[in-house]
Amino acid sequence: MTYAILARDPQTGDLGGAVATGTPVVGGFVLHAEPALGIVATQGLSTSTLWGASALRRLVLGETPREVVEGLVAMDEGREARQLAVLDVHGATAAFTGADNLLARGTHEEPGLVVAANWVAGAELPGRVAAGFHAARGDFAERLIAALAAGAAAGGDVRGDRSAALRIVSAERPPVDLRADDDADPIERLRTILAATREPAFQRFLASVPTLLEPEKRAPEASRAR
Predict the structure, then answer these.
(1) Maximum CA extent, the chain
(2) How many helices and strands in the chain, by DSSP H and E?
(3) pTM for the full model?
(4) Is residue 221 very low, low, confident or very high in pLDDT (cuts 50, 70, 90)?
(5) Strand locations in 125-217 (E)
(6) What's the CA dihedral at 219, 223, 224, 226 to 10 degrees?
(7) How many CA atoms lie within 13 A of 184 on its CB side?
(8) Is 162 exposed, middle or buried (0-12, 13-18, 19+ CB in 10 A)?
(9) How are strands ordered across the β-sheet holding 2-8?
């Protein structure tokens, strides 16, 4: 009952995902990511959040996204009620849609991008989401939200969209983890929250947050509270 996009930003190597659904709190169930590994979307009629952590562990072991998906699906007798998408740090993708998920359902895969959807308004929606991402202007986060908006314009969740989330992980920058958990227009709410993160005071805080490449980073002495 969800549509999600996972993508790799070719300019920065950052990994991001955006998702919308007709139920509350989608961000807590679908998007799982580690900057040096990949990003995963777990969704479906009976979402297995366990697949998220398991997929990332398999990527640590050197499996390709295709091997990750095949391995998780083979081990789970409830697989036909689930949907899974995996994108690794190199841009390789794989996806699975169980036969018990409600129509319309499907996926779209290309290098550096994968879209998965189930119980949405039409089978063309995954392609519309991908096209929305490619056509969008702005930075990576803005393009991911634009991809969701393209999905909503194509009909979105058949029940209407009630929650949405955006997640971006990076070796060089702090993570982005935004959620509109119960909202009449959750995609537009994500845009509002994203704009709030661009405020100068919050940007100064982000500049002091440790990253994989700068794990010892901290705020300059003069700017810390005393």
Answers:
(1) 59
(2) 6, 10
(3) 0.96
(4) low
(5) 163-169, 176-180
(6) 160
(7) 0
(8) buried
(9) 105-110, 113-118, 2-8, 15-21, 163-169, 176-180
